[in-house]
Amino acid sequence: MHLELSGLTKSFGSLVANDHIDLVIEPGQIHCLLGENGAGKSTLMNMLYGLLQPDSGEIVIDGEKVAITSPRDAIGHGIGMVHQHFMLVPVFTVAENIMLGRENTHAGGVLDRKKAHALVTELSDRYGFAVDPDALVENIPVGVQQRVEIIKALTNDAKVLILDEPTAVLTPAEIDELIAVMRQLKDNGTSIVFITHKLKEVKAIADKITVIGRGKVVGSAEPSASEEELAELMVGRAVDLVVNKEPAQPGDPVLRVEGLTVIDERGFTAVDAVDLEVRAGEILAVAGVQGNGQTELAEALLGLTPIAAGTISLDGADLSHRSTRQRLDAGIGYVPEDRGHDGFVGSFSVAENLVLDLFRQAPFGTGLALRTDEIDRNAAARIEEFDIRTQGADLPVSSLSGGNQQKVVLARELSRPLKLLVASQPTRGVDVGSIEFLHSRIVEERDRGTAVLIVSTELDEIAALADRVAVMYRGKVVGVVPSDTPRDELGLMMAGASQREAEVEATENPTTLGTI
Amino acid sequence: ACGSKPAEDSASGGANKDFKACMVSDSGGFDDKSFNQTSYAGLQAAVKEKGLTEVKAESKSDNDYPTNMTAMVQAGCKIIISVGFKLEDATDKAAQANPDIKFAIVDSAPAKPIANVKPLGFNTAQSSFQAGYLAAAMSKSGKVGTFGGIKIPPVTIFMDGFAEGVRHYNKQKSKNVQVLGWDDAKQSGLFTGDFEDKAKGQNTAQNLITQGADIIFPVAGPAGLGGLQAAKASNGKVNAIWVDTDGCESAAEYCSVLITSVKKGMDVAVQDAITSVVDNKFDNSQFIGTLENGGTSLAPFHEFDSLVSAELKAELEQLKADIVSGKITIASKAQPKAS
Amino acid sequence: MSNDTATEPQQPPAPASPVREPGRGGLPGWAVQGLVSLSAIVLALVVGALLIIVGDDEVKTAIGYFGAAPLDTLSAAATAVGEAYKALAVGAVGGLNPIAESLTQATPLICGGLAVSLAFRTGLFNIGAQGQLIIGAILAGYVGFAWHLPPVLHLVLAVVAGLVGGAIWGGLVGLLKARTGAHEVIVTIMLNYVAIYLLQWLLTTSAFKRPGREDPISPIVDANAQYPQFGDTRLHVGFLLALVAAVFVWWLLNRSTIGFELRAVGANADASRTAGMSVGRAYIVAMLVAGALAGLAGTQQVLGTDLPLTDGVAATIGFDAITVALLGRGTPLGTVLAGLLFGALNAGGLQMQLQTQTPLTLTTVLQAVIVLFVAAPALVRSVFRFLPKERGTGAVLAKGWNG
Amino acid sequence: MSHTTTPETVRVPAPAAIEGPADRIRRLRVGGLMVVFALIGLGLAIFTGGGKATFQLTSGDLENNLLGVPAQPVALLLGALGLVAAVAYVLRRVPQRYAGWLAVVLGVCFIGAFLCWAAAGKTFPLANQFQGTLNFATPLILGALAGVLCERAGVINIAIEGQFLVGAFTAAVVASTTGSAAAALVAAALTGVLMAALLAVFSIKYLVNQVVLGVVLVVFASGITGYLFDQFLQEDAENLNTPAVLSAVKIPGLGDIPFIGPILFNQTVLVYLTYLAVAVVTFVLFQTRWGLRVRAVGEHPKAADTVGIKVKRVRYSAVLWAGVLAGLGGAFFTVGYAGSFSKEMTAGNGFIALAALIMGRWHPIGAMVAALFFGFATQLQSQLQIIQTPIPGELLLMAPYLATVIAVAGLVGRVRAPKADGEPYVTE
Ligand SMILES: Nc1ncnc2c1ncn2[C@@H]1O[C@H](COP(=O)(O)OP(=O)(O)OP(=O)(O)O)[C@@H](O)[C@H]1O
Ligand SMILES: Nc1ncnc2c1ncn2[C@@H]1O[C@H](COP(=O)(O)OP(=O)(O)OP(=O)(O)O)[C@@H](O)[C@H]1O
Ligand SMILES: [Mg+2]
Ligand SMILES: [Mg+2]
């Protein structure tokens, strides 16, 4: 199928998210879209999929102009999409999610669950996905959820498949599998639009690369272009892809975790007798596929999740049963993994969010009274310092782009003296330009003597920041390794291999990305 | 097809058109199938009889009493009737401020008599006593039942009289007819908790019926209608006695199950109070409706006329005479005190 | 994320310079909102007029011979509506006394509305203002008539008792929610019933009954415990307290650390917890203060307008307060304005029934329809096409049940 | 060792020896409450009078079919059993799976002991207890089901009370004017739909906050039915407000089952419709295409949209069908049971239905159980007022409401609404 977008324009209020974008997707082509956060990639794809209506411009399929006013139309035209934010109903089973919208029914609209079951089994066999049709989506790891999303898109026999940041939550091995599936689809003549922030992936699979910036097509590149070239095309300036950091000067242990066990709400063991130690002036990265207990580990450190066993101590003081507020006051800074959910209050202004955990302390709060002038002054300083791109400190944070929202959270946490910084996924979904800045700020904090614990699923990020790496699998720490451990080896440990097994396997079976 | 225009109504009565007879309801409203509604009927009757102008104000809440009272004063009312004890304070205040206007208040009395306020009280315990006696006599199961809306004296006075009447019957006839739903000695019994929920009233009555009661005496305004419905649904096994008005008139659909009603003659009392002002005969003496003056009475038996034996009818007459003469005294504390 | 999805679409991403409608003089946001609200009231009056016409006796008669003299029907209709609305207007704002009456009616509505608003801003749906008001009234009333104290002191104590009563009844809801997760909607509905039955019971006890009376009515509170009145009107100092309460709520929400916490919890409980706030404590504090505000409304009922305690002391204020808060979009100023509007409608409605025998239920319909239209500016705009577009439809209050 | 990560759930159930803190808190809370009730039950048993407690097993028949039990021994037995259950719960003496049953055992024991105490030396109409429970619960069930349908689709429905009122009103008027019960039910359902349409249009099309809307619609319904009552029904009650009430229809066979037969299967059409509604709503929600879509738009409308489901249309249909149920629930108050209409006659039942639906965790069966629980408590207090127990009547009147608070705080705990409940779906 030959797909042509011409002059697509979309604005939200005064913001032009897409400004006359032209794009051609050839049959059987893997077309990569690159661009900073908020460049307009998802907006463009959402218009193609009928979720958003363009203000102007047209979509032409096989030479014919078509109107796509709803996802229904898009599906009808053979377009499938895997969305950046999962479009799965968490309380439904995998089978229910997959049948939703095109249910097979018996007489009277009664669901034919058998057929749905068979379909899931068939597709997951065909593509080598092992997915249990009866599992509730909210109970399966994100990696598997991603597969469900892909199965959903595939069941429609899409001729054009849009994948919007599908790899953000996958392990290197899973990414490899996905790349294999994409190749298989391409060989069958399916065209694919692939959006990602990971330049390695782009180089591995793209037939064509289009870069979008501030709502416009700002250039295109060949897969042969170097990562640095691509990054520069995206950000508009040269970008340091490696963080320049001095070797760590670790001091005394600051955080000590012993036998920490967390049981989640459903009665499952999320963190299983974990021992960890983080020293002043070092960055310990906790690596692992999402859902292996890192989230709960970080939350337990902050007292957001009650612990079932074990101790947490900071500078020798036992914090295991302190409240979150006491831990923050004791000098822990926290950047939560899901910023929109836990990191800020979307309807609050930038200024208010910059004091979300400081508002009680002088100078912002004196007694019962809130000093709004001080809050504003603080906002001006932080916005300047962290280069937060906003049109005003009084605007709601929800109106900022993802990267800038993340800067707000980090700016807040770094604006007070810390002993320990816990940062989960500090740069998830953030573009390379912002990543560069955020990383350097974290290293700066380390060099100031703060103990830093990073939780990340991104091997790039781990490679860039970590002094030591702890790999978690099924709630346990399977090993603590130096930061220069090869990525394939880390990837295998994230899948449960011990360090020794990983070493052997990685040399025998290198992955695509590991070798680029 | 449309009719023709009626001729202008030729000044009907007209005699006292500028005499405004006014009434303020309590928060139950004029459609409460109870005392507001009956009192209003009295107002309408007086207006018709004397050719007056009526003004009425319903109160949605307690806050509205003083407002409505003031508005009535300003409207130039000659007499203002307030309905219910909750209006006492507002009435007294307005009366003292406006000695030229006459007032009457239903079911209440100022603590100290006020020259231009006529209290209208009703000793419905007397006729309820008769009703209790009648019910006891008519009961085949030997159990009669009663329930109220909320436990307040205007409600419990009926229940008291009813229970005492049953007891009197037992003593006279050496029977043991039981009253379910009210223990007048302990002043505790069965209440629905409001005056609105008809379904609840019906269920409550049903519970009495299950316990064996075959005559129901609901004292719960519209919710009490549910009790009549329960009787009706029993297909003749259970009958009822209504309160305030003659149920065969105010709730005609239930006439077939109504042995009689305990009438509280608010309509007549209100009408009299108004006409006394028109005729310049107003006095502030307390009116207490009794069996003697007809201010409370048993309604006709209507469809049960043939079922109530002549003997029983005679006994009821005798009861009346005995109560009037003081031979029978009624204990209920809810009876209006003569001031 | 999901917490904000309802509000987000209305927030333009970059309103550095206020977004203006092309070709239209930029009216400030509040003016636009005012215009829309005014139009909503006009629309509601039209609906009310239809009901008046349908229910009017003269019109009913005239319609009987519509064919013979159609103009009669029209003129009868016009007269009916005209007279009713004239009475409504006069009763609401036609002179000093009517205005005082409107303000008196508005007083408890404002406090009750604030109680609902404050809880809303904390993400709680307080259907329990009614019960909180009742308990407040019970305590304030009891202190007012059973104790005999010198001026000022007596009033202060009675008011404090009312605040405490309301706070207990509200705080209980917050406590249960914080400790056990019990849904506040269920608990407040149930506690409303408990409160009214409690009051009915207390009124049968000798501690509450007026001496010499068997009726369930308490004595009127001592003069020392009454809010001083303004001149001959029924308007009393409680009204000023209501305004003070509104200012207090504004300060609490916008200028205090507690309010910061409450708002944060209301807007995103997860992020608040992550930032070290105690969500449970916020619920308790919010419900305590909300309860106290409703209790204040209770004091205004028993200490302000010469009302003794009866089982009708709360009327439907606690429920009307919800509508008032919603109409006021959960802000203190909005709540005051909405309270005033409802107070005026109540006062005017009484006058309307008096002069034209229009049932009070019409006022109820009017109030509902006004709120309905104010809440749906898009609908109003589709009728009055000249209205400028509003920037955002204002704060969306309580979101879903998940808070 | 292969490259693929294992697909099954990452988490393993915690070993039984370790209890999650959340579970622990819940166990202590529920357990504490159970112990308190067990002790109250035992205390009542100790103070139970001598003689027999008689339970009447056939409604309306005081002579036959009585079950007499020695009050105190039975009460003591039940009290002790209840205490055992409570203690077993607190001490985790049964596998987690069966722990819930301990609460049920305790509940039954407590009520049994309580009844023995209350009915010692008296007769307690047991059959009537269940009959009354059903009567009180029927409109609540219909209302709560209406709420379930709406809210599963993502539209909060506080307006049940308003839908009740208009349903009750039209049913009364139509039954009076046409004399046809069927017509009355249809009319009630239709006006329920009309109110629901207001809810739907204003929430789905005009994006009005649904909590606001619900409250306002209740006020509106109360105003409009009140106004029409004042202006029309009041004046011409004979023709407009004397509906015939549905009569009970005994189901052959089922109606003859001892004890439960007369209670469950000698009822009006409306009650049968209610049973049917529970079954149908449960089935439709969880087993049909439409139900799947309704739940999808209530949980994650955007996900539904991306697979081609017309979110708004599904929401409209769910809200309107809910209107049918709520309208029928309203009809119960007039033609279904009590006859003529009077102002505000639904007396807050719509709000109780709302509470039932939340307490029932937005599940049709749960909502029904909650409604029955409330009906049971209400009926029990009414019956206890008649047989005269030492409990003051005033306290009894509050009891159903207090019981609900205790149940919600103690047993139900945190509930989770459909994720998108109350959130309008906006596309750009
Ligand atoms: N629904 C919306 N309303 C208003 N503005 C929006 C909306 N959706 C996106 N935007 C804005 O449009 C711009 C483009 O957003 P888009 O989601 O297309 O970016 P993106 O390129 O996909 O970014 P990312 O890499 O972070 O996913 C952003 O500035 C964003 O703030
Ligand atoms: N209504 C809106 N108004 C303004 N900006 C919006 C709106 N909706 C979304 N955005 C912004 O659009 C950008 C892209 O939206 P998107 O939903 O892709 O989130 P995101 O931040 O990119 O998420 P992630 O970090 O998980 O990739 C974000 O910066 C978000 O803040
Ligand atoms: Mg995107
Ligand atoms: Mg992104």
Account of the 3D structure:
The complex is a heterotetramer of chains A (516), B (339), C (403) and D (428). Chain B has 339 residues and is an alpha/beta fold. Helix content of chain B is 39%, strand content 19%. In chain C, helix 1 (29-55) crosses helix 3. In chain C, 67% of the residues lie in helices and 0% in strands. The longest helix of chain C has 28 residues, at 153-180. Chain C has two domains: 34-94 and 358-386, no CATH class; 107-343, no CATH class. The relative contact order of chain C is 0.19. Chain D is globular and about 65 Å long. Chain D has helices spanning 21-46, 71-90, 96-119, 126-152, 160-178, 181-205, 210-233, 237-240, 260-265, 269-287, 289-299, 301-306, 311-333, 349-359, 364-387, 393-412, and strands spanning 12-13, 52-56, 66-70, 123-125, 249-250, 266-267. Chain D is built from 16 helices and six strands. The model of chain D is unreliable at 1-9 (pLDDT under 50). Chains in contact: A-C, A-D, B-C, B-D, C-D. The interface between A and D is large, with 75 and 43 residues. Strand 12 (268-279) of chain A pairs antiparallel with strand 1 (12-13) of chain D.
Quick overview of this protein structure:
The complex is a heterotetramer of chains A (516), B (339), C (403) and D (428). Chain A is built from 19 helices and 22 strands.
Question: Which features does this protein show?
Answer:
B: 339 residues, alpha/beta, six-stranded parallel β-sheet, C: 403 residues, 2 domains, 15 helices, 67% helix, disordered N terminus, binds adenosine-5'-triphosphate, binds magnesium ion
Tell me, rounded to a whole number, the average pLDDT of chain D.
89
Task: Measure the end-to-end span of chain A.
Answer: 31 Å
By CATH reckoning, the class of the largest domain in chain A would read: Alpha Beta
Radius of gyration of chain D: 24 Å
**Percentage of residues in helical conformation of chain A:** 25-40%
Provide the CATH superfamily of the largest domain in chain A: P-loop containing nucleotide triphosphate hydrolases
